[in-house]
Amino acid sequence: LIGQKAQKEGYKAYAIGGFVRDLLLGVENLDIDIVVEENAISFAEKLVKYIGGNLKTYPNFGTATLTLKDGSKIDFATARMEFYPFPAALPEVEETTIKHDLYRRDFTINTLGFKLNSPVFGDFLDFFNGKKDLEDGIIRVLYNLSFVEDPTRILRAIRFEARYGFKIEEQTLAFMENAINNNMLEQVKVSRMADELKLMLVEKTGLASFKRAMDLGIIDKIFGEIEDKKGLLKGMEISNNLLAMCKDKGIPIDEPFLIYLRTILAYCSEGVRNKFLKGMNLEKNNYDDLVYFLTEYQGILEKLIDPKFYSPSQLVSMLERFSNDSLIALTAISGSNLVKKRVFLYLEELSKISVEIKGEDLLELGLKPGPIFSEIIQNVKKEKLDGNIANKEEEILWVKS
Ligand code: ATP
Mapped to the 3 state alphabet, what secondary structure does the chain carry? Predict the structure, then answer.
């Protein structure tokens, strides 16, 4: 349909990038990227009238996203023609623009495409031997300065490497190490770095990528020299296991990436923490929660690690000020089974215990409304947590007494 419309309206459209890569690998990828010559937005505007869906355009970037009724998404980008010193001879004139566009991409395996226009539908584009690299399982950049031009590609390379079980090609690895040693990662804006880190860490193979990034010195460059590398790695492994455990047990987690980030930041200097917190454009509630965690986690860990007995109500009063995400991160950082036992007792049981009587019940008992009401409810809760009250009837009896 897209190809027919492109042909009719005089555009050239190509399916490119991750969608084509995954199609050849036989991996599901519902995110379709289409590059259009000459103008993706005007083409997408015509197409939406034809096939329906919800279109968002981004004129500054020459891109548009079409969300179809079934929820699937198609991204449209205008083919960009920028000057690059091509090692190879220019192709036939008609393919110059798309070739230039594909040359700007990160790795050869992401430069594959096919034509969508109806008469030539399916004609395969492989200007940079991407198909061979895909078959051989190789991550390879297109030009020497690729990682210098965009250092986030360093994280992308190790993400794809782990995801597909590929290998970063030797020369590419050397370019990468060169960029790392020349402090290119420090040039990247925190928010961009965080976006790429998030993409990496939330993959199934995120932990393997993180280890690789540690070994290559990437984490030290992004977060400053980490002194306790073993401790951080262990914390990341435990975070990963605990996230799986929460999923199994149905314990709600807000943002897995921010659990990993809390764990990493706990091993960083104050300066790095502040740089990340300020630079990440976090939503206010996430920002506040992270700040709270970083200022309070050590104090609470000291108490939780202490084997002395805490009553359930004491545990609740210590833990209820933390979000679930923060509790998982602090359990991971502690590496302690006692902390894990206590936190999960809270998450699975104690946090679900609530008081059933309400203000109106207290009024019925003849009490006068005021601050005393919340004091009573608090005390009922404490008794209930500690197992002295089981149900609403007993709550009322306790208040009466
Ligand atoms: P995923 O399967 O993780 O979505 P993807 O390859 O589709 O992987 P996207 O981040 O959606 O990745 O990017 C779409 C395409 O844009 C990629 O295939 C790649 O060609 C290109 N691209 C993305 N980021 C960069 C970058 N930093 N440098 C160069 N090209 C990039």
Answer: CHHHHHHHHCCEEEEECHHHHHHHHCCCCCEEEEEEECCHHHHHHHHHHHHCCEEEEECCCCEEEEECCCCCEEEEEECCCCCCCCCCCCCCHHHHHHHHHHHCCCEHHHCCEEECCHHHCCCEECCCCHHHHHHHCEECECCCCHHHHCCHHHHHHHHHHHHHCCEECHHHHHHHHHHHHCCCHHHCCHHHHHHHHHHHHCCCCHHHHHHHHHHCCHHHHHHCCCCCHHHHHHHHHHHHHHHHHHHHHCCCCCCHHHHHHHHHHHCCCHHHHHHHHHHCCCCHHHHHHHHHHHHHHHHHHHHHHCCCCCCHHHHHHHHCCCCHHHHHHHHHHHCCHHHHHHHHHHHHCHHHCCCCCCHHHHHHCCCCCCHHHHHHHHHHHHHHHCCCCCCHHHHHHHHHC
Find the 17 Cα to ligand 1 centroid distance in Å. Answer: 7
354-387: per-residue pLDDT in tens?
999 998 999 988 888 888 899 999 999 999 999 9
pLDDT of residue 95: 62
Atom 11, ligand 1: residue with shortest CA distance: 18
* Binding-site residues, ligand 1, Cβ < 6 A: 17-18, 29, 31, 33, 105-106, 110, 150, 152-153, 156
ipTM of the complex: 0.96
pTM of the model: 0.90
Best probe residue, ligand 1, of 110, 146, 160, 200 (max atoms within 8 Å of C-beta): 110
